[in-house]
Write a structure and sequence with these properties.
The structure is a homodimer of 339-residue chains. Chain A has 339 residues and is an alpha/beta fold. Helices cover 40% and strands 18% of the residues of chain A. In chain A, strands 2-1-3-4-5-13 form a 6-stranded parallel β-sheet, with helices on both faces. Chain A has a 4-stranded parallel β-sheet with strand order 7-6-10-11, sandwiched between helices. Chain A has a two-stranded antiparallel ribbon with strand order 8-9. In chain A, a hairpin with a 6-residue loop joins strand 8 and strand 9. The longest helix of chain A is centred in the C-terminal third of the chain and has 17 residues. In chain A, 50% of the residues are buried. Chains A and B meet through helix 4, helix 5, strand 2, helix 6 and helix 10 of A and helix 4, helix 5, strand 2, helix 6 and helix 10 of B. Chain A binds a DNA duplex (30 and 30 nucleotides) through helix 2 and helix 4.
DNA sequence: ATTAGAAATGACGACGTTGTCACAGACAGG
DNA sequence: CCTGTCTGTGACAACGTCGTCATTTCTAAT
């Protein structure tokens, strides 16, 4: 690899002068600059990040710790958003997947330390509370898609309650009154929040929500969920006073609703409106009719996580905001108006 | 951050002795070792990667360049596989997403150089030919999910032909004779190879393949595909002598086949068997009936890419193998036997 | 007790970069 | 001519680690 010294020798100047030019220091004669730049180009000089860093600078590498998000279809957009923000400043992401393994996570923290990362984004696969240990980690830690159990770290999370509200409000606005709900597993935050949003929408419309129409779409502990939306949905749709629309905990649940409808020879949206959550495009865009759903702002979460981290680096903050990002409806073809 | 010097001072030994202990050098007295280890632990010493690297070692960071794979549902498993292999040796992946942007790719190559990465995995979102420039990049470059146009780089690719063969053979074995095919766009390698595999299976069974039953499931140029599988499938299934089974170019196409079947009140698998490709679990596991499909060995591609890179580092190879990884059938519920 | 050899430890420098400071030369004003 | 200021350039040190080699301490054999 080409070093400053080699360029300097070739150009007949001192190392420092070359360094100045590489770093855009204006205190260098125009003629010298042009001559040296030529050599830099020719030798394809690229500054040695390790050396720069050791010199005392901070690392331009950020850590991205996650249970599975980085390698999971659901929320890779968090990574994309973070990288987009980082790119502008030529910074990089070191991505660590713990798969929920605490020992692995510990190893990765060690690795982050070894690389002297300038900050860490801690992202989870689904919206939840999280305790980040690492009290002796001096650089900022920002949570994405999860929030600090102790409220001691800035975090970026989706507005699940608003998303649930949007789902219900959309259907109510289209004339639906009997609306089924197929939830995610009960012990995650999103389930509670979305449920609250749905109920709020009913209240705001002056209607009462029929609790018997809310069923679980999946069961089991976190990370070991089993889908039961198909069965639950078949049962729900077989009832005499079956709902005219179904709100789904996510797009995979919606997929099973489509399957249940097909099983019963019901046609969407004619016989049944369906609204999903997550906007997993692999599903939502390819289903026919395509799926109206609520998007999770993952890209934005990633992008703002980086920005929040940069701010946190400046203001040496005790300030730990919890930033809520909106979940907009993505309107497609799976809902129709009643009457 | 704690340095060797600080540990050494605290322990009352020389820097070098601490260094020896950190690196497991046996030439150090047991008593000293234990005493120092205690201090290491207490101060939470973590070796500075930058300093180590500058000292002359190689970087333990590998680059992962990709058009979109790292942040795309389709093939994130390549990343997972690579990381799994890397983890064992405490090595890391620097992930770069070009989104097909050549300027961005150039920037990332510069970044890889800046970090003095020990090697690069170049992965593509779909199986294709690729030209890697970077003739002056001294460390190994291994291609994953694509192969070198000039055959000058080792590459790991899925056995698409075998996968196509498996799809057809599976259906033929289950008694199907009229078998529809909904392909991906024609100008990608996978389409051709899988088509060849399907035809080979028919030949091996002593049957002839009805070319009129092969239709495109999507159209448009690469990266701008549009799904038309639903329409194509509805048409195919509306014909008098409709196929009893359909081979899909991927699971998204299969999803549209399910939708088409529902549209026509046909039930899967009773009235129609469906077999997918890719095993995108979000789809294949959640559809009801769940989707029999062919898995792409993405995880394995990632894992072996790392191993191939390690080998390439040792043998300073002119040798550039093209390694084919099998695509196994994942049997679920979407196919039934005829007669 | 002496000595040879082995075991344990430490001093030093180099890796590539950049901040600090010093120096050389140009130029203006007195 | 001297002084002061300004511009351009370079010498040097330091960052943290580890290989090389020298030095010290210990062990065992005479």
């Amino acid at each position: 690899m080409v070093t400053l010294r080699q360029v300097a020798e070739r150009a007949g100047v001192s190392i420092k002068t070359v360094s100045r030019i590489v770093n855009g220091d204006p205190a260098v004669n125009a003629k010298t600059r042009i001559a040296v730049q030529h050599h830099l180009e020719f030798l394809n000089y690229v500054p040695n990040h390790a050396a720069r860093m050791m010199r005392g600078g901070s690392s331009s590498i950020f850590g991205f710790m996650t249970d599975a998000v980085a390698t999971t279809p659901y929320s890779v957009d968090i990574v994309r958003g973070a990288q987009a923000a980082l790119n502008e400043k030529n910074q990089t992401l070191l991505i660590a997947n713990t798969d929920g393994d605490a020992k692995l996570e510990k190893e990765y923290w060690r690795m982050f330390r070894a690389h002297r990362v300038a900050g860490v984004i801690y992202a989870s696969m689904f919206h939840r509370s999280h305790m980040v240990g690492q009290p002796d980690f001096k650089d900022p830690i920002v949570l994405a898609n999860c929030f600090a159990a102790l409220g001691d770290r800035p975090s970026l999370i989706p507005d699940d309650e608003g998303g649930g509200y949007a789902q219900a409000e959309y259907l109510l606005r289209h004339g639906h009154r009997r609306i089924g709900v197929l939830t995610l597993i009960p012990d995650i935050v999103a389930t509670t929040l979305r449920g609250a949003g749905i109920r709020q929408a009913f209240r705001d419309a002056g209607l009462s929500f029929d609790e018997s129409l809310e069923q679980r779409g999946m069961v089991g502990p976190v990370h070991f969920e089993r889908m039961i939306a198909f069965d639950a949905c078949v049962k729900m749709l077989s009832a005499k006073d079956r709902p005219s629309a179904i709100i789904c905990g996510n797009d995979q649940v919606a997929l099973q609703v489509y399957s249940a409808a097909a099983h019963l020879d019901l046609h969407i949206p004619r016989d049944l409106s369906v609204i999903g959550f997550d906007d997993q495009k692999v599903i939502s865009e390819n289903l026919r009719p395509s799926l109206t759903t609520v998007a999770l702002p993952y890209f934005e979460i990633g992008r703002q996580a980086v920005e929040t981290m940069r701010e946190a680096k400046q203001n040496d903050a005790n300030w730990a905001p919890k930033i809520l990002l909106p979940c907009p409806i993505v309107e497609r073809e799976s809902c129709c108006a009643i009457r």
